[in-house]
């Protein structure tokens, strides 16, 4: 028995466009044509489609499905075991995100009190990774310095944040210019920029001695989310995070403990 594209679309709960895509990709081509030239699918075609949809539901890409269906030597069980492991990993990750979201609902009480429109207007591309912010909260919430920093951040007005972001944008522009110009990371220009960054943190958030600033800069290299808080991804260059870290540590060496503030 033969079935039209429209009938198969109705049976399978997928669009005609999807069937055409499968045909074009060589994954499922109808076995016959009507006298008028329309595609007609056989019972064997429907059986193959059922297999395709099964693997698609499990998240297999089309090229891998084609390998499983077309290669007599392909071991479908091995593919399924690999997919099973991946799905379990994804479940674990989603569960962690659920926990993070639950904690984040509490964190919002100590965050910056701006409306979504104001956040977009003020922060623009520089956004805060919710997972990263929440993990930081869970890790440091009992530290007095963290609590003080969050309290100061929560107390800033929209105008304050506009000044903070403008100051940071100007600093980023000069940082990337120094990097692009090949200025040495331990040179005066780079160290001055590192010191500006340290003073920016101290002025708007929390006291930032050079050892603390060094740990912050180390985080820029080990965690891209941390560096994105300082330099948005579209402004980053390969090697910029290590460059800034080197400048921060060089600046710490340059400064004497008596000047550390």
TrEMBL record:
SMART domains from the UniProt entry: HTH_MERR
Gene3D superfamilies documented for this protein: 1.10.1660.10, Antibiotic binding domain of TipA-like multidrug resistance regulators
UniProt keyword annotations, A-Z: Activator, Coiled coil, DNA-binding, Transcription, Transcription regulation
Coiled coil regions in record: 77-104
Residue intervals passing through the bilayer: none
SUPFAM superfamilies: Antibiotic binding domain of TipA-like multidrug resistance regulators (SSF89082), Putative DNA-binding domain (SSF46955)
Pfam families: MerR_1, TipAS
Organism superkingdom: Bacteria
Entry keyword Nucleotide-binding: no
Ranges for domain HTH merR-type: 1-71
Matching InterPro entries: DNA-bd_dom_put_sf, MerR-type_HTH_dom, MerR_fam, TipA-like_antibiotic-bd, TipAS_dom
PROSITE patterns: HTH_MERR_1, HTH_MERR_2
Name recorded for this polypeptide: MerR family transcriptional regulator
């Amino acid at each position: 028995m033969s079935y039209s594209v429209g009938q198969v679309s109705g049976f399978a709960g997928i669009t005609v466009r999807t069937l055409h895509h499968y045909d074009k990709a060589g994954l499922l081509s109808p076995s016959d044509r009507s006298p008028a030239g329309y595609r007609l699918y056989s019972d064997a075609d429907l059986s193959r489609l059922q297999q395709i949809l099964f693997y698609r539901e499990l998240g297999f890409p089309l090229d891998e499905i084609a390998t499983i269906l077309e290669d007599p030597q392909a071991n479908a069980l091995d593919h399924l075991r690999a997919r099973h492991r991946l799905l379990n990993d994804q479940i674990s990750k989603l569960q962690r995100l659920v926990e993070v979201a639950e904690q984040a609902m509490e964190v919002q009480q100590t965050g910056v009190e701006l409306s979504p429109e104001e956040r977009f207007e003020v922060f623009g591309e520089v956004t805060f990774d919710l997972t990263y912010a929440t993990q930081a909260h869970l890790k440091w919430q009992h530290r007095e310095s963290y609590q003080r920093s969050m309290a100061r951040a929560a107390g800033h007005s929209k105008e304050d944040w506009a000044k903070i972001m403008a100051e940071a944008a100007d600093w980023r522009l000069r940082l990337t210019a120094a990097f692009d110009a090949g200025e040495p990371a331990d040179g005066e220009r780079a160290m001055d920029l590192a010191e500006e960054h340290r003073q920016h943190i101290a002025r708007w958030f929390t006291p930032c001695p050079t050892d603390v600033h060094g740990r912050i800069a180390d985080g820029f290299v080990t965690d891209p989310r941390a560096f994105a808080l300082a330099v948005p991804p579209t402004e980053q260059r390969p090697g910029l995070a290590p460059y800034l870290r080197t400048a921060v540590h060089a600046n710490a060496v340059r400064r004497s403990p008596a000047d550390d503030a």
